[in-house]
Amino acid sequence: MYNSKISGLGYYVPENVVTNDDLSKMMDTNDAWIQERTGIKERHWIKDGSDDTAATMGIKAAKIAMERATVTAKDIDFIVFATLSPDYYFPGCGVMIQEMLGLDTVGAIDIRNQCSGFIYAISTADQFIKTGMYKTVLVIGSEFHSGGLDKTTKGRNVSVIFGDGAGAAILTREEDTSKGILSTHLHSEGKFAKELIVEFPSINHWIPEIIANHGKEEPSYYPYMDGQLVFKNAIVRFSEVINEGLEKNNLTASDINMFIPHQANLRISQFVQRRFKLADNQVYNNIMKYGNTTAASIPIALTEAWEQGKIKKGDLVVLAAFGSGFTWGSVIIRW
Ligand code: UT7
């Protein structure tokens, strides 16, 4: 058995910045509400007419990660792509990456686990490397949220939160099993599936049925979220799954050097920070600049923290996420 390690990281966000004040021109909201409840100041939204999509943003992030890992396209054995906003209903974005990077006919899968998508994707890649099946796996988390949000007052509790962007990591084989990804921990609880959901279109509500039975105002075209329920579950599950990872490796919270939470809400991150008694320089948050980019949020934050020299060799790095499904998970890394 081997471990896997993160050998390269990259991210890309579309250049168009949308501030809270910009949103208040589209819907009944305001900068004070958004900052106080979420911590978000601005987010990046793909502009109409741009050729950015989940796949093309993913490629841009991947190329940076590959360069930093000194990996070329021919080295990549497998692609794992996490997104809830794919370019097509099917096929997934993974195969588009295979084509765009000009890779040999390597395998490619898409992960549909929303805010936990990157954790699930890393865990999937890690299993292939651990068993020795693959040596180098490209992992991407990418979201094009802004095309699918209700940007009127009706959708304000969801649409002010989400941003577009992509992050990528190259995972490679690590022979020393005391280093790299030490363990990953995944959970789900489908009884809450409808508490954070986009319901239409789906095979139960496919295009002819939608045209026959639903008008332009049908709310199920847009994301629905019971924000308070999600919040309450998030703070419990974040804490549980971090503890699970620490215990599995005979570690305690005092061993954590850097915690990178999924950027769902600054108040959730701060709650977890207090719960584990972490100092400000032991938690990396960037939700202020990007909003919640779902599967992209952890790799964007991890890349920034690494670029800023906040993660050093030998550090214990903890990643954790919670979101739609509900799904949640953690990754424990000895950097
Ligand atoms: O990443 C996936 C996982 N997602 C999460 O973890 C999100 C977890 N939940 C949250 O982050 C918070 O629940 C929200 C930020 C979504 C909402 O914050 P909240 O403190 O739970 O607010 P609320 O939904 O209880 O709404 C409070 C009030 C309501 O008005 P009334 O009924 O008190 O008059 C809302 O209508 O705020 C109103 N409101 C807004 N006002 C201005 C809701 N959205 C907005 C808005 N601007 N954008």
- Helical run tally: 11
The hetero molecules present are: oxa(dethia)-CoA
Biggest sheet record: 5 strands, mixed
Low-pLDDT residue intervals, each spanning 5 or more residues: none
Q: What would you call the structural class?
A: alpha/beta
Distance between the termini: 18 Å
What would you say the CATH architecture of the largest domain is? 3-Layer(aba) Sandwich
What is the CATH class name of the largest domain?
Alpha Beta
- Please give the number of β-strands: 13
The portion of residues assigned to helices is 25-40%
Give the strand line-up of the largest sheet. 1-7-6-4-5
Instruction: Give me the CATH superfamily of the largest domain.
Output: Thiolase/Chalcone synthase
Number of folding domains?
2
Can you tell me the overall shape? globular
Describe this structure in words.
This protein has 11 helices and 13 strands. The protein is α/β, with parallel strands linked by helices. The strands form 4 sheets. Strands 1-7-6-4-5 form a 5-stranded mixed sheet, with helices on both faces. The mean pLDDT is 97. It binds oxa(dethia)-CoA. Oxa(dethia)-CoA binds at residues 29, 33-34, 37-38, 115, 156-157, 160, 227-228, 230-231, 234, 264-265, 268, 292, 323.
